[in-house]
Design brief:
- By secondary structure, this protein is mostly helical.
- The chain has 36 helices and 5 strands.
- The strands form 2 sheets. A 3-stranded antiparallel β-sheet has the order 4-3-5. The protein has a two-stranded antiparallel sheet with strand order 1-2.
- It is elongated.
- The termini are far apart.
């Protein structure tokens, strides 16, 4: 008996709550496999199963019943109804309230009586076997926990409410709306939302009943009838100006619109606007004057009319139509394409026939005018989102797309033509000047004659930055403003440069700051520049010098204020300026404060090397590129393919400018200057203090450095916003680096040739100005402990040219130049000493010259060169030592000169002593311990 356990008492009849909990506990654990398939496969099948089939599936087994209660399944079914997504909860509540039976006012009163049978409501009802149509209702409510809002209970409630609205759909088509009206309400908006909710209920994703497809077709027919009635009511309200009724009908129509195709009501409203049919009122060709220039005053009037129509109709569209309908943007798109686009097309065609420059200006101006539509659309709606703004901008972008390919190609081609004209005109003008010659004053360099070239360069760059800040007229308002239309490709290309360039070049002319310290007669002097166009007409620019001046020094404020005191008068602005040829220059006597300034003021280079480079040409090229850039900036916000093309065109325009400026101007000018320096022969020129080609090359270096700084300023202010300056693979960054490297290579090659020319000049000075007995004076001659004339002139020549290079190039290049000058000067002096016969008194003269050379080299502040000249200065002592044995000891001391000279080298120098034949044996014996009587055998 011990092996039989005692039976525990059990309850034969459990309460309703305990039974419910037990069933819930059985429903929670779902095995991973149901039959031969995983539970996930069953759940995937349930997601696509029609609603009437779910009860039959649930009755297959306890596992399938538990799976049919899974919240993921009913969450998807609830989302398929789109009640939460489209905010239809209130509509569902209204339908439920209309379906509740109303209590009859005549029902007899009832009295609650306790019949002692107790409360049977908690006991579960055993439903009878339901029919197939009611299977879901009885199944869904079974075991539902009261008060718990799950996705299953939400869907069950919606299903039961909407299922009661399906009966009227079985009526004939003309009677469906009448039968539905008691169930869905009488207001247009409530009817529309209810019909929309029924459409979601009868969708293929839900399939609530067996005949859902038939009921859905009947519902769609009813919605079409309802939409037609709304459109009729909307037209009637529009004709009498009833915006409230229009708003109600429009919102109701938007609710029942399926979202496929165009919304009929918005489309019909837009088609009835008068602005779409008034193209004949405006003449696009009225924007051209009799002189074939642009005057956009008629287009201003046209756009003002379009803007007024947009504001009038757009305000009504914002009030009447739902924002999501996009009726305002759609209406603006039709206005842009059918009104503005049709107006712009013949305007651009006519501009293209006249000239390329006029076409470019017309394209940019037309786009700028059309962009006013975007501004209006933005101001009409207060809740205009960023996405809506993008749609409004796309209206203009899409309207202008047919013109973009031709415009971008033409922009680059016209820019190339403009660059070609500028370069050819510069070559023509320089050739004319070189062939006819100029007065000496006209040939004087500009930067080199200034007391402070660095300050003048900073002033030029400050003025250039101000020029870049000048506004660019995109939309011409008056006749002649903007671009000059001339026939032919050359005239059109030059016209694209614009009139702002003329004033900018007058501001940047360095001649304005030459002699800026004042004038002796205290009167205003003028410099005239002739501007020649393609037809030979000229415009005169008179540039006044400063009225006030100081006696010495350079006042930075006076230089900065000179631009405001100077006056520029333009006699003819209708001609595009292509060349700036100095014709006559005023002379000015300037008080100089230092010997350096006096030396600079007396320099008069020859050979017209200063005509090889020009700030004017560089400024013309930059201005041509800037005008194109300002036009392209208007299209910089273009999205997609054309946005990429616009940015590529901006980069290509800048690269084209750099290529022309580098290859056609800087490289060519520096190359000619280098060739001329290589062919310079000092013996053919009387002037010894200066090397004319080298001075002019220094001027070219100043101009090249200023041009590079102008390009850098232009790059930082205008182009940097469109590229990544840190991207070394960017085509603009690479082209700019190539431009800088080419300029550095040209300067380096020129400095190499210039250094050779300079040192040839120094060698020539030393040879010609050193007297035959300079270092072998007579015994009774007085001893002068000062440098010789040849030494003084050579140092003056070197000092002049070395100081001229300061401020025009980098510190590294300057140090290399100084080092090269020192090395070559050292070789020249060693060679010069070895040519002389030096006495004891002449040795002191040699030491005086070497001290002067050392002082000059020490001023260059190049340590290794200074050390070499210090050793050379010490080497001069060998010419003043009288005792031959002491001289031999000096020669043998290898540490005396820091290893710069070997004893053999010093032996060569002492051979130039006048008494060498007397002391040679003693020196040799002491140096090499030789005894000619003992060690030499003559056979």
């Amino acid at each position: 008996m011990d092996k039989f356990a005692a039976l525990e008492p059990t309850r034969l009849y459990s309460s309703s709550a305990s039974a419910t909990n037990k069933r819930a506990s059985r429903a929670q654990p779902i095995s991973r496999w149901i039959g031969k398939l995983p539970a996930d496969i069953h759940l995937l099948v349930l997601n696509h199963l029609p609603i009437p089939d779910i009860p039959a599936y649930a009755r297959a087994s306890r596992a399938t019943a538990g799976l049919s209660r899974d919240e993921k399944l009913w969450e998807r079914r609830w989302n398929d109804l789109s009640i939460t997504r489209h905010a239809l909860d209130d509509t569902l509540d209204d339908l439920e309230s209309k379906q509740k039976p109303k209590a009859s006012p005549y029902s007899p009163p009832t009295i609650s009586v306790d019949d002692d049978f107790g409360d049977f409501t908690s006991a579960p009802r055993m439903p009878s076997v339901p029919s197939l149509s009611a299977a879901f209702t009885s199944f869904a409510f079974a075991d539902a926990s009261p008060g718990k809002q799950t996705f299953r209970t939400r869907y069950t409630r919606a299903h039961s409410i909407l299922n009661k609205c399906l009966a009227p759909l079985k009526q004939p088509p003309h009677a469906v709306l009448s039968a539905l009206t008691p169930l869905i309400g009488v207001s247009l908006l409530s009817q529309a939302r209810s019909l929309r909710l029924l459409g979601f209920f009868l969708s293929p994703r839900v399939q609530p009943v067996r005949n859902w497809d038939i009921l859905l077709a009947a519902l769609k027919a009813a919605i079409d009838r309802f939409d037609v009635s709304l459109l009729t009511a909307f037209d009637a309200a529009d004709s009498r100006g009833d915006e409230v009724m229009m708003r109600e009908a429009a919102r109701a129509s938007w609710e029942v619109w399926p979202g496929i195709g165009d919304w009929e009501m918005g489309k019909v409203w837009a088609e009835k606007r008068e602005i779409l049919y008034e193209q004949g009122r405006w003449n696009p060709l009225a924007n051209f004057t009799e002189e074939n220039t642009l005057d956009f005053t008629p287009m201003d009037e046209f756009m003002a009319s379009v803007i007024r129509a947009l504001e009038e109709h757009g305000t009504r569209a914002v009030f009447v139509f739902p924002p999501a309908a996009g009726v305002l943007v759609g209406f603006a798109e039709r206005v842009a394409n059918e009104v503005v686009g049709e107006y712009i097309a013949p305007l651009l065609t006519r501009a293209r026939e006249i000239s390329n420059a006029l076409y470019l200006t017309a394209v940019a101006a037309s786009f700028r005018e059309s962009w006013r539509i975007v501004d209006v659309l933005t101001t009409l709606s207060s809740n205009f989102s960023h996405k809506d703004k993008d749609k409004a901008e796309d209206v203009i972008f899409m309207m202008f797309e047919p013109n973009m390919d031709e415009y971008l190609d033409e922009e680059i081609e016209s820019l190339k033509q403009a660059f070609e004209v500028i370069c050819k005109e510069w070559a023509r003008s320089t050739l004319a000047l070189a062939s006819h010659g100029l007065p000496t004053q006209a040939q004087q360099t500009r930067f080199l004659t200034a007391q402070n070239p660095a300050l003048m360069k900073r002033t030029v760059l400050a003025s250039f930055a101000d020029v870049l800040l000048l506004p660019v007229t995109i939309v011409p308002r008056t006749v002649g403003a903007g671009v000059v239309a001339v026939g032919g490709a050359v005239g059109g290309a030059v016209g694209a440069v614009g009139t702002g360039m003329v004033q900018g070049i007058a501001m940047l002319n360095p001649q304005r700051w030459v002699g800026g310290t004042g004038s002796t007669n205290n009167s205003k002097e003028y410099t005239s520049f002739g501007l020649h166009d393609a037809e030979g007409e000229a415009a005169i620019f008179e540039i006044g010098a400063d009225e006030e001046g100081g006696d010495d020094g350079v006042d930075e404020s006076s230089l900065a204020q000179s631009s405001t005191r100077d006056t520029v008068s333009i006699n003819n602005t209708n001609t595009a300026a292509t060349s700036f040829t100095p014709s006559t220059f005023g002379t000015s006597q300037t008080n100089v404060a230092s010997s350096t300034s006096a030396t600079k003021a007396t320099l008069a280079p020859t050979g017209n090397l200063d005509l090889l480079l020009s700030l004017d040409v560089a400024l013309q090229l930059i201005h041509a590129d800037r005008d194109a850039l300002k036009r392209l900036e208007i299209f910089a916000s273009y999205p997609g393919h054309y946005g990429t093309r616009v940015r590529e065109t901006i980069e290509e325009a800048f690269c084209e400018m750099l290529g022309v400026l580098c290859n056609r101007h800087l490289e060519k000018g520096f190359g000619i200057a280098t060739e001329r320096m290589n062919s310079y022969k000092p013996a053919e020129h009387e002037e010894t203090a200066s090397v004319a080609p080298l001075l002019q090359f220094f001027e070219l270096v100043h101009i090249g450095d200023t041009i590079q700084s102008m390009v850098q300023v232009f790059f930082d202010k205008e182009l940097a916003p469109y590229i990544d300056k840190t991207d070394f693979l960017n085509v603009v960054v690479r082209e700019k680096k190539r431009f800088e490297n080419t300029l550095d290579d040209c300067v380096a090659a020129g400095l190499n040739a210039g250094t050779q020319v300079l040192m040839n000049q120094v060698d020539h000075i030393i040879l010609t100005l050193t007297k035959p007995r300079e270092y072998y004076p007579p015994e009774d001659a007085p001893l002068e402990l000062g440098p010789t004339q040849g030494c003084t002139e050579a140092i003056r020549c070197l000092d002049t040219h070395c100081k001229l290079l300061k401020g025009s190039t980098s510190k590294e290049v300057l140090e290399v130049f100084y080092q090269e000058v020192g090395i070559r000067l050292l070789a020249i002096l060693q060679k010069h000493i070895k040519r002389q016969i030096i006495s004891l008194n002449g040795g002191f003269q040699v030491i005086a010259d070497l001290n002067a050379y050392y002082s000059f080299v020490a001023s260059l502040k190049v340590p290794n060169i200074t050390a070499d000249f210090s050793h050379l200065k010490m080497l001069g002592h060998v010419f003043v030592v009288e005792d031959a044995k002491d001289l031999a000891q000096i020669v043998r001391d290898v540490t005396r000169y820091g290893g710069a000279y070997r004893p053999e080298d010093i032996y060569e120098f002492i051979q130039r002593r006048a008494d060498w034949k007397k002391i040679e044996k003693t020196v040799d014996k002491t140096m090499y311990n030789l005894s000619f009587k003992e060690d030499c055998i003559v056979c």
